[in-house]
Design a protein that fits this description.
Strand content: 35-45%
Radius of gyration: 33 Å
Strand order of the largest sheet: 5-6-7-8-9-10-11-12
Structural class: mainly beta
Distance between the termini: 76 Å
Shape: elongated
Largest sheet: 8 strands, antiparallel, barrel
Order of helices and strands: EEEEEEEHEEEEE
Number of helices: 1
Length: 164
């Protein structure tokens, strides 16, 4: 076994100056400043997706109510649902990820090939359309019965419900 010898150089600290000490000056006194709010331009036409509010200003258009009086918006449809058709039921998941034909959808545990093939959904007014993988094949059309329940028919005429 060979022994190695190392030479360790001594390290000298960097030169420093003594620290000076002095009292701090008091902080400056500032007067409160009111931020300037620019005046909004007056639009002669309402923006797309808005309705005039004759009380002044513009308000965003509300979700379209279904014939039952239930308002339906895209965000109301997000998440997990139970889908039932022809005596079978399975899970449906809807997201706002854009997809061919609308937004992304997927199913889990569906035995019917048409339901297992749902890959997209779209909302037009109060009508929800479930679509196949190509985004153009219509699998089912639904209308809101309540905020948590939709019913309609599949493309082959069978009844279908989607509920939470």
């Amino acid at each position: 076994m060979t022994q190695r010898t190392q030479t360790i150089a001594s390290v000298q600290p960097a030169p420093s100056r003594p620290v000076q000490q002095a009292p701090l000056a008091p902080p400056p006194t500032l007067e409160p400043v009111q931020p300037e709010v620019p005046e909004a331009p007056i639009a002669s036409e309402p923006l797309p997706g808005t309705e005039p509010n004759f009380g002044g200003g513009v308000q965003t258009a509300a979700a379209t109510p279904a014939p039952s009086g239930v308002s339906v918006g895209r965000t109301d449809l997000l998440g997990g649902w139970t889908i039932s058709s022809g005596g079978a039921s399975c899970q449906l998941f809807m997201s706002l990820t854009t997809w061919t034909g609308g937004y992304r959808a997927s199913t889990r545990g569906c035995s019917a090939p048409s339901l297992a093939g749902i890959a997209a959904w779209d909302l037009n007014g109060s009508t929800v359309t479930l679509k196949g993988g190509d985004g153009s094949t219509q699998v089912a059309t639904l209308r809101a019965d309540s905020a948590q329940s939709f019913s309609g028919s599949t493309s082959d005429g069978a009844g279908i419900t989607v509920s939470r």
